[in-house]
Design goal:
By secondary structure, this protein is mostly beta strands. The protein is built from no helices and seven strands.
Length: 88
């Protein structure tokens, strides 16, 4: 099997992204002025896809805990504020 790494731009709050069924989030980070998430996907595509939700939340911000949130990564913006991404 071949794999590729795809990237998706994230916005603060909940992001709903359609991903191939067995995609694996790898990391998050700044690219230019945007927060991106890199995901490992099987290639070629054509496999079933799922809509998955990712929460981008700042340190100290309140949010409702979903049943088993999966930590994806933490990024620090240029001003020093720290953000966290979870799959929910």
């Amino acid at each position: 099997m071949e794999y590729r790494v795809w990237k998706y731009e994230l916005e603060p709050g909940v992001n709903e992204i359609e991903l191939p069924y067995e995609a694996v989030p790898l990391s998050v980070g700044w690219q230019g002025r945007n927060v991106m998430m890199w995901v490992l996907v099987e290639h070629p595509g054509g496999r079933a896809k799922d809509k998955r939700k990712f929460l981008w939340i700042g340190t100290g911000h309140k949010f409702e805990r979903h049943a088993s949130p999966e930590f994806v990564g933490t990024v620090q913006d240029p001003s020093g504020f720290v953000w966290h991404v979870f799959e929910v």
